[in-house]
Amino acid sequence: MAGVFKTVMFLVLAFAAVVVFAEDYDVGDDTEWTRPMDLEFYTTWAAGKTFRVGDELEFEFAAGRHDVAVVTKDAYENCDKEKPISHYTTSPVRIMLNTTGPQYYICTVGDHCRFGQKLAIDVVAAGGRAGGGATPTTPATPGPAGSTTPAAGGASPTTPAGTTTPPGSSGTTTTTPTGAASSLSSATFLVAFVSAVVALF
């Protein structure tokens, strides 16, 4: 019986250690999810971050003025809003990152995507090393009247793997992401500590 208790206690505490190191990201921070002044705003926002499995993105926006669509790479590059994988209109939208790989998000309202309201991220494993949070984007080409529109790309579609949690759940706080090595060493220490405590029983 004591062996079963030790095993269950270890698994519960190890799971808690992984959850503790998950990050909640408020997309755009204080700017939130809106049509930005700078075409590269969301690319720049994501560039210094490492998105890992277990992290959560939160998109906050004015009701009726913006939305969030999960799209393929091709749709992201061309701002194609016709067939999104998922489409959300009620703020806040919370998306749990549950698998590795690139993921793409756009606003389908008006020309917001073409004016920079789009986000591409690359998700790594929970203990994975950082390779940069942003996914490279296709360079923009000049459009009419000085506007810019993304260049058409020939990339094959990639399906993002994020899933959503129901809107309206409790709010989240923004935290500064820590480095992969720091998170991994802290998790390793916590698991070792838990193992030592369980061994005492």
Question: Helices and strands in order, then pairings?
Answer:
Elements: H1 2-20, E1 24-26, H2 41-47, E2 51-52, E3 56-59, E4 68-71, H3 73-78, E5 86-88, E6 93-96, E7 101-106, E8 118-124, E9 140-142, E10 148-150, E11 163-165, H4 180-200
Parallel strand pairs: 1-3, 2-8
Antiparallel strand pairs: 3-6, 4-5, 4-7, 6-11, 7-8, 9-10
Helix pairs in contact: 1-4
Domain Phytocyanin: 23-125
GO biological process, one term: regulation of lignin biosynthetic process
Biased composition (Low complexity): 135-179
Count of domain modules: 2
Structural class: alpha+beta
CATH structural class of the largest domain: Mainly Beta
The helix/strand series, from N terminus to C terminus, equals HEHEEEHEEEEEEEH
**Overall radius of gyration:** 20 Å
